[in-house]
Amino acid sequence: DGASAYGATSGNLIEALREGLDGAATEDGYEPKDYDGVCFVHSGYAAEHGGTDCDGAEALDRIWVHSRGMNWFDPRDGNGERTNLVYTIVSAFWGTCGTEMARVAMQTHEVGHILGLGDLYGFGTRGNGVGRWDSMGYVWGPDNAQRYPPHFSAYSKIEVGFVEPTVLKEDGTYSILAAEIVPQVYQIKHGYPQGEYLLIENRQSVG
């Protein structure tokens, strides 16, 4: 059945993912319940590319890349222990025809959700989001080809614990190294309303 719009109405999709976890659970040394999240890669073309693919499937009948919570019951456990986890699902292929491997950008964004990050792009008329400065805002990269997604912004890195910001409390002259090399972020709270602050990082076109 159609699983576009993030598979919101597709019970078959969730059932297929659970079967995949059932199979993985039989592998020696692999315990799905030991993980907070799991990434699925499906065959076929992604819905987000639109149109009709080479197999004749319309976008509404294909799977849209997404991340969501699900539950899974270990088939080896007679007590039916339930595991709650976050999954992502992306296509193995790029575009709507051919066998070119999918590019890294979409998976980068969805893994951000597994780490607990929210979307940072604009919704409707409520602003433009953070744009190209964060994979949670715009993941297509400088050439719009999904090969070179941006890394997470200072805000996202702090949220997931990748960096601890240095709070600047005094006026002065400060230096800051490239964020691609050193996990360094400055935070300024003084002069901003309660709960608001300025984050400073040095983004360089390196790496």
Task: Tell me what the structure shows.
The protein has 207 residues and is of the alpha/beta class. The protein has one domain. Helix content is 17%, strand content 15%. It is built from four helices and six strands; from the N terminus they run ααβββααβββ. It has helices at residues 4-7, 11-25, 105-114, 154-160; strands spanning 37-42, 66-73, 82-91, 166-167, 186-188, 198-200. The strands form two sheets. Strands 1-3-2 form a three-stranded mixed β-sheet, with helices on both faces. A three-stranded mixed β-sheet has the order 4-5-6, with no helix packed on it. β2 (66-73) and β3 form a beta hairpin.
Please give the structural blueprint.
Elements (H helix, E strand, L loop, with lengths): L3 H4 L3 H15 L11 E6 L23 E8 L8 E10 L13 H10 L39 H7 L5 E2 L18 E3 L9 E3 L7
Parallel strand pairs: 1-3, 4-5
Antiparallel strand pairs: 2-3, 5-6
Protein name: Peptidase M6-like domain-containing protein
Pfam families: Peptidase_M6
GO molecular function: peptidase activity
Write a concise keyword list for the protein shown above:
Peptidase_M6-like_domain, globular, alpha/beta, Peptidase M6-like domain-containing protein, 3-stranded mixed sheet, peptidase activity
User: What is the molecular shape?
Assistant: globular
Q: Output mean pLDDT.
A: 88
Largest sheet: 3 strands, mixed
Q: Compute the CA-based radius of gyration.
A: 20 Å
pLDDT < 50 runs, ≥5 residues: none
The tally of beta strands, per DSSP, is: 6
Distance between the termini: 42 Å
Strand order of the largest sheet: 1-3-2
Helix and strand succession?
HHEEEHHEEE
Strand content: 15-25%
Broad structural category: alpha/beta
* Helix share bin: 10-25%
Tally the structural domains.
Answer: 1
Number of helical runs? 4
GO molecular function, one term: peptidase activity
Organism: Pseudictyota dubia
Domain Peptidase M6-like: 36-156
InterPro entries: Peptidase_M6-like_domain
